[in-house]
Amino acid sequence: MSAMIALLALPLAGALAAVATPRQGARIAGLVALASAVALALLIAQMTSAGSVRVAPGGWDAPLGIVLEADGLAVGFIALTVAVMAGVIAIAAPMRSLAAPFWPLAMLAWAALNAIFLSRDLFNLYVGLELLTLAAVALVAMGGDKALGAALRYLIFALTGSILYLAGVVLVYSAHGMLDIDLLAGTMPGRTDRMAMALMTVGLLIKTALFPFHVWLAPAHAAAPAPASAILSALVPKASFVILLRLWFEAMPDTANDRILSVLAVLGALAVVHGGAMALRQGRLKQIIAYSTVAQIGYLFLVFPLAGGDSAAQPWAAGAWTGTVFQALGHGLAKAAMFLCAGMWIIAVGSDRLEALRGLARALPMTAMAFAIAAITLMGLPPSGGFTAKYLMMTTAFASGQVVWGLVLLGGGLLAAAYLYRPMALLFTREMPDFTPVPRALQLVPLVLALLAVGMGILSDGVYTFVQIGRPGAAEEGL
Amino acid sequence: MTALLPIAILLSSLIPAGVTFFLAQESHRLRNTLSLGGATVKLLLIVVMLLAVGQGAEYEARLSLAPGLYLLLRIDALSLLFMSLSAVLWLLTTVYAIAYFGTKAELSRFFGFFSLCVAATTGLAMAGSLITFFLFFELLTLATWPLVVHKQDAKSLAAGRSYLAFALPGSAALLVAIIWLESATGPVEFARSPDLSVLPEASLRWIFALFVAGLGVKAALVPLHGWLPGAMAAPAPVSALLHAVAVVKAGAFGIVRVVYDVFGITTVQELGLGTPLAVLASVTILWGSLRALQQREIKKRLAFSTVSQVSYIVLGAALAGPYATIGGLAHLVHQGLMKITLFFCAGIYDERAGVKRIEGLNGLGARMPVTSVCFSLGALGMIGLPPMAGFVSKVYLGIGGLQAGAPWVLAVLAGSTLLNAAYFLPLLYRLWFMPADDDMAGDERVPMLVWPAAVTALVSVAVGVFAASALSPLGWAALIVERDYWP
DSSP state, A60? Predict the structure, then answer.
């Protein structure tokens, strides 16, 4: 219990401390990461023996008070956040070009992320989302004058999303007089609930940057400083997606019907195709990586018809649901590794134009290796978390007769191979570029993140079991 | 012990691979020790295992990944056949590669991926389930790409690009086939044939087609062979290993597994899939030979010859009679030994005499006698001169064709033999009977390059001459067939 509170309080306290002492930002963030890792380890140890952990801070249970719950889904994402943040901090600390506000903003985003993962209350989730949005927009704006336009566009989209989500929450409250996810799960869905779900879902789709609401993502993620992009791409869209999972699989699964679920998956499929096609056409590395995020987010939405609606009761639902979580986690690790590589290459050669990458594999071999390994996860090739995800989701798609979603996964993998091949081929050309050296220890950071994504695939048994903790209907085995 | 041995064999190349990546370019001695040590250890472990499996022992190791997804390493007679080939050739190729590269750049990367490639091949051989096979199949794709582009010039990058453009869609097709099948039958293990009756016949035909397409890319079945000639841009040791054991054999071996252990011969015949596959293999055999005839570059000619020869294995599997199977499986080893000899020699001609095109071979026989004798033995074996290895394969395939009621196979074999002679004999004529150009240089004073070629040449002769022995590849193939497929 105290571990859970610590995970929320540490980054928040760190953010405040970093505001108070701007010169110590990096050091404070490092301490927060270290302490969070310890708290996370304690929490995981507790959960593997005793299952999900619930806390009602203040001693009031729902509906009077608010409840936090650490289940497999929440802690999986908290662990992802700790890993990505640790990597970001290691890379960002020695970067002199990074202004002091980066540190409090990053830690504020971190606190908001943890709050969203742990909350069981729809309004609390709203507060977390708003906090996250503000921190994320400010992180984009740190990219300098060129980034302001992108940041403004992001802000407009994100606030629209927030308003829609909030409107949905108000409707739910007016109908049921409470906002706790577990209590809502016990209610009968009515007309208002369908309306509310529609509003909240659209709001969250905008924040998750699902096609066609993705137009803000690529400019924003490409304009932000690379360490900030790592946070924005790897973590931020995952928060609103987790809320979507909570809404559709925990709070109000009965409001779903096949048509709505299919629409979500169709949008996901379009995102995969569109994101991939756009990534193929970009001339800058960070834009390729950003459009790749659009595509990778698309995969996540295949979960709705595969594990929701009529499929929910089937034995294969568990596989698809867990596969989606694997995809989200694996993408987070790999994408953070890629943005951190991009950041180092920008320091080394002063640009992220594709042409500037020539021969960097020879100059900075570890980063090239990290990029290649991260690419394996994004392409969904074994042995990686991305492959486990693809395998689990594809098996479900074929077993449930929804073959088309399986083919989306497959085609998306090939598209990813195509758009990632371009930077890779340039990295491995035989030239020695003029470059500013980067310390070997720093080069190791993205390599560790990329290897974690691969490790998720190799040790997928343990991850699978852990993520299932507390999942509704988790007793059912996968296929 | 029975679970540890497969894992130990895998680690004998994985550990050298992992360590080698992090070695400095200059630590030649440590790197060579690791590579050679790993290869030797693996060979010893395999000998231990050969003795045990010959007496009926079986080895198995399982590692759970996710529900329905597990790694299964299982050693049966067929996996040992492939594994022994890869272990012997790896050791020899490592010796050759060390001499070939000397102190050139980026060697830690090269030998790291080289070992990884062999680990993948070993994993393929030991794979006991479809998904395990797929995991190593993909690992092989990824580990060979850096080897193909090793020179990092425009030509090798283009070759690497075309390799991926064929290989990745190929493995996508394979994955669809596997998941389609497994979503109906549950995980498929080779030792226990799955119950296919749950799927309609039309789906089974599609799944089979996807399997053949996916594996056929690596096996270089026409029209999926486009990447192979380009991959010649890679350094000679890579070409040697790629053509003899690593990539093309992985595809052929996979097709054998699918025909015998996934679908089973009876089902393949009932679905009427055997004949189309045999026809596809025959077309590949003839087309590859015809294209080889048109090539003026030695390595290109050898590459198209590979396209043709590897399909003998597929033909054996498709005909699915005992003799055809024995012939096909034996050819898996025979072709490997002969082709690696030819590539070793082509590499020596290139390195020591600067000869890349067949015109340059004129009179080289006198200057480089050992290399040229080896090359001639390999070529004659390929043509199928009795009593050499290629002859043994062809005889068994021919009898198998008659057994399976497909006498047209004899015509294919005869046509292929003529074409083989047509594209190999002119090379031998040039080597031994044409006068040398005056300004020709060339010597073979690098024993570590020449000896591996000599060893494989002699072994390839021996496996033909002593084919009747139980220890020969043919004897082992007969044991596989008697034990597993026609008990």
Answer: P
Tell me the C-alpha distance between B120 and B122, whole Å: 5
Q: pLDDT truncated to tens, each residue of chain B (487 aa)?
A: 467 888 888 888 888 888 888 887 778 888 888 888 888 999 999 888 888 887 777 788 888 877 778 888 988 888 888 998 989 998 999 999 888 888 777 788 888 898 999 899 999 999 999 999 999 999 999 889 988 888 888 888 888 899 999 999 999 999 999 999 988 888 888 888 888 888 888 999 999 999 999 999 999 898 888 888 888 888 888 888 887 788 899 999 999 999 988 998 888 888 989 899 999 999 999 999 999 999 998 989 999 999 999 999 999 999 888 889 999 999 999 999 999 999 999 999 988 888 888 888 888 888 888 999 999 999 999 998 888 888 999 999 999 999 888 889 999 999 999 999 999 999 999 989 888 776 667 777 888 888 999 999 999 999 888 888 877 888 888 888 887 777 6
Task: Check if the beta carbon of residue A204 is closer than 8 Å to that of residue A243.
Answer: yes
What DSSP element (H or E) covers B59? Answer: strand B59-66
Longest dimension (CA), chain B: 71
Beta-bridged to residue B297, according to DSSP, are B357
Cβ <8 Å between A394 and B161: no
Chain B positions touching A457 (Cβ under 8 A) are 65
Chain A residues close to B147, C-beta within 8 Å: none
Tell which residue, B139, B207, B130, B171, has the closest CA to residue A398.
Answer: B207
Task: Name the residue facing B66 among A369, A430, A460 (closest C-beta).
Answer: A460
Return the H-helix or E-strand segment holding A70.
Answer: strand A68-70
Tokens of B461: 């002769």
Give B153's contacts in chain A (Cβ within 8 Å). Answer: 430
Closest residue in chain B to residue A467, using alpha carbons only = B66
Task: Give the closest-approach CA distance of B463 to chain A in angstroms.
Answer: 37
CB-nearest partner of B69 from A318, A391, A417:
A391
pTM for the whole thing?
A: 0.91
Strand partners, B60: B74
Interface test with A, best of B104, B113, B129, B138 (most A CBs within 10 A): B138
Check the CA dihedral A327-A329-A333-A335 and report its sign.
positive
Under 8 Å between Cβ of B429 and B342 = no
Inspect the interface and report whether the beta carbons of B164 and A382 lie closer than 8 Å.
no
Q: Is A117 on the interface with B (CB under 8 A)?
A: no
CB B383 within 8 A of CB B422: no
How large is the C-alpha radius of gyration of chain B? Answer: 21
Instruction: Closest CB to B139: pick one of A382, A398, A478.
Output: A382
Closest by CA position to A146, among listed A91, A66, A219, A88: A219
| Contact: B66, A464; criterion CB under 8 Å | yes
Partner-chain contact B142 A376, CB within 8 Å? yes
- Residues of chain A found within 8 Å of residue B164, distances taken between Cβ atoms: 417, 421
Report the alpha-carbon distance of residue A74 to residue A80 in Å, rounded: 10
Three-class SS of residue A20? helix
CA A442 to the chain's CA centroid: 23
- Least CB–CB distance from B157: residue in A407, A425, A479: A425
Nearest CA in chain B to A425: B157
Q: What is the distance between the alpha carbons of residues A293 and A418, in angstroms, rounded to a whole number?
A: 15
A32 and A81 in contact (C-beta within 8 Å)?
no
Q: Which two tokens stand for residue A176?
A: 């049921």
Query: Are the beta carbons of A250 and A184 closer than 8 angstroms?
Result: no
Contact (CB<8Å) A382/B134: yes
Joined together, the tokens standing for residue B482 give: 């008697």
Give the C-alpha separation, A50 to B42, whole Å.
Answer: 45
* ipTM, 2 dp: 0.87
Tokens 């404070």 sit at which residue?
Answer: A28
